[in-house]
């Protein structure tokens, strides 16, 4: 367990949409914090979009952290001034104490 704990050297915050509706019925763009925790954040490059000759490909990251029940797809990870949208959550049965979030940087 201590080997895994040593990998978690970055402090991150996870945010989610508030879920509230405006009087017009449109979903609010407000974000609320879910948690703060330690994680390991690694760049994964830009993915297969660059091979498809798209005009821009957003940087991708892999975020390794302890398993949590309050995380979900489309939440945002705030790390070193960047916002990363959670696109995939991976839990490996051989390592039940950790999970990996595959994220894509959000342009402001």
Report on the structure:
The chain is mainly beta and 108 residues long. The chain contains one helix and six strands. The N and C termini lie far apart (37 Å).
What Rg, in angstroms, do the CA atoms define? 15 Å
SSE series: HEEEEEE
> What's the average pLDDT?
86
How many strands in all? 6
Number of domains: 1
Task: List the keywords.
108 residues; mainly beta; Thrombin, subunit H; 6-stranded antiparallel β-barrel; 1 helix
Compact description:
This protein has 108 residues and is mainly beta. Helix content is 6%, strand content 47%.
Give the SSE layout.
Elements: H1 2-7, E1 10-17, E2 31-45, E3 60-66, E4 76-79, E5 82-90, E6 98-105
Antiparallel strand pairs: 1-2, 1-4, 2-3, 3-6, 4-5, 5-6
């Amino acid at each position: 367990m201590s080997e895994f704990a040593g990998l978690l050297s970055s402090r991150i915050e996870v945010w989610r949409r508030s879920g509230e509706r405006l009087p017009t019925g449109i979903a609010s763009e407000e974000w609320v914090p879910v948690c703060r925790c330690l994680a390991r954040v690694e760049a994964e490059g830009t993915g297969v979009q660059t091979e498809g000759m798209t005009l821009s490909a957003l940087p991708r990251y892999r975020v390794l952290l302890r398993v949590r029940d309050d995380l979900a797809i489309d939440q945002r990870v705030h790390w070193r001034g960047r916002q990363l949208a959670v696109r995939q959550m991976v839990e490996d049965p051989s390592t039940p104490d950790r999970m990996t979030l595959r994220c894509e940087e959000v342009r402001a």
